[in-house]
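Morning!

As promised:
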Amino acid sequence: MEQLSVNQIFRGLETGKPLIHQITNNVTINDCANATLAIGASPVMATSIEEVEAMAGLADALVINFGTITADMYESMVLAGKAANRKGIPVVFDPVGVGATPYRTQKAMDYMKKVKVDIVRGNGTEVYALIGGQANTRGVDAGELSLTHTELAKLAAEKLNAVIVISGKHDAISDGTRVAEIENGDIWLTAVTGTGCMTTSLIASCAGVSEDYFSAAVVGMGVMSLAGERARRKISDGEGIGTFKVKLMDEIFTMNETVWEREVILR
Amino acid sequence: MEQLSVNQIFRGLETGKPLIHQITNNVTINDCANATLAIGASPVMATSIEEVEAMAGLADALVINFGTITADMYESMVLAGKAANRKGIPVVFDPVGVGATPYRTQKAMDYMKKVKVDIVRGNGTEVYALIGGQANTRGVDAGELSLTHTELAKLAAEKLNAVIVISGKHDAISDGTRVAEIENGDIWLTAVTGTGCMTTSLIASCAGVSEDYFSAAVVGMGVMSLAGERARRKISDGEGIGTFKVKLMDEIFTMNETVWEREVILR
Amino acid sequence: MEQLSVNQIFRGLETGKPLIHQITNNVTINDCANATLAIGASPVMATSIEEVEAMAGLADALVINFGTITADMYESMVLAGKAANRKGIPVVFDPVGVGATPYRTQKAMDYMKKVKVDIVRGNGTEVYALIGGQANTRGVDAGELSLTHTELAKLAAEKLNAVIVISGKHDAISDGTRVAEIENGDIWLTAVTGTGCMTTSLIASCAGVSEDYFSAAVVGMGVMSLAGERARRKISDGEGIGTFKVKLMDEIFTMNETVWEREVILR
């Protein structure tokens, strides 16, 4: 694989403390803010239509997360997205639940037309729905499609002209040309709400300090999958997702370039 | 006591991973989602008026929680509730704070008229207010009434034609005919916000896999009270509600039928 | 320093369990509710315009937190604030992010005109913006001003006719006449989202049982800074902000007057 800017990103986070503006859902908003702090960036979660443009204008990256999308929040997301585009900061989109209801799918497609999205992170079904595929509404994973995650990431990257990250057993990242797979992770990452949303915040934090969005996506995704794996190893008998979530945050916080380079399994 | 479908519920959760649609408050929404995952169900927290009907149409149970009720949220709750009624999935209602302000009490009573509620879970005051009783607004527990929790549960079940669960030192569950009391629990469950809301999510998860709503209520309530008791036993000197909340989630996650049958004290 | 009513406040919390009505942001609302419980008070987080007046009428203190301020929430804050003023309970204001966008700054200044605020808690920049200062929007700390935090607290207290608390490396509290500095704390308190918001909830809890708002501010601020310091001491190698946040809540929960008097370093 081509050289990734791992070193530059970790150093950028250490020295730059990028400001990550996030318009996100009410379920995982606290975890997203803490994940952003844990990786060394600074979160701001303003959503009011009166100030999102001004706030995006101060930020180094913008996260748009559809988890609990409402009509009001959608308007704020469009304004903030356009402000981000004007300023030239990355817009990172998490199409939570897209494909599950027509409302979400339509709003997501509209959003991609109105705002230039630089990075999309979702699961297989969500990304598939975003490029017009029909998935089972209960959340069929892309594994049941005729495409692998990696093929889907590449196809979606071409269609949407963005870096695509598909989280899953193996994570797939593509910008349409380059492709990476991350083999780290742990099944318990699916047993805690918000690990996907947090990953999106981590990727945006990385993209806030690097114009190489493909590398930012690989580094941010790698941090989460590796942190999940490392947290799980520290779980004792009788412990469950309560302890796992605490240790996951610890692992993101203590992650550094050396650990990342040594333990992330890239293909 | 008549045979409870404990075995069928635990097996249903394991194999069915029911989808629990929850329109709930902003305070405990993350904990409710994680409690739902911990017991083996799948949470979706969509609240937007544009999609709640579609989402309820995909779900196996619906939770309506009044914690931070607003006029908009109320409208979504009515639409989702009617969709749930049409589909025949259980509606589980948590009348948080009902009795404290006239707004809440009136909205709760309206809600029970517009939507067929299958299970109600609250504390003594909330349930008492729901059947038209006047309680001290600062939250007098039903212990100060002339009724025991068990008598109140039975009376409310008859009046509201629903399974009633009253959480407290001892929990009382009734469908108007059958009555159960659970003697497990721990006082620290009242020192963490959201344990009531989480219990409602657990009960809905159980009702999502069993048409025997009385059993679902007993099993879900029992999981929380027993998990609280078990978590408290693992607390060391110098630890408090931070650690307790983590261990509570662990205990819900690791709970199984064997532990439940052995340690839940039912009367 | 003049006598502080530390003893009276701790005893008041133990016996009075004051009800703290909080209209706050969606990011840290759960942590604020749990911090309130941990110090021995009772939280209620109602925000709906239809009931905030009634709820404030039941409360012993009101928290107004601007973290995710919207136009609707602002209206509720004004209604609740006026109801609190009429009832004579303390209004504790957290001007989160004021100075960052013109919208926030203007709304905060408007708020101080419409409602009598008794205590303000913020960082240096926020308090500076509140008295009309121009700070760097990315959040310059008041250390870069020509004023110390203590001088700024005193000046703001005079200008705003309120007790002012400025959280920082050393915390500064003033009512315009009296001045206190707290030298406890830990840098990790800035690495977890919501520690400022939680401090505001703690201060309001103390003010809910004491008319000596200066003492309430010192006690509440001291609880957080000392809890942070004590939590950090219990962190092992490989642990990070996940574990720290859990232990922070434990320390607030287990804090008592003896520990406070022995370990809080006041000047």
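The interface with chain A takes residues 19, 26, 29-30, 33-34, 37-38, 43-51, 54-55, 58, 234, 245-254 of chain B (CB under 8 Å).

Hope this helps with the figure draft.
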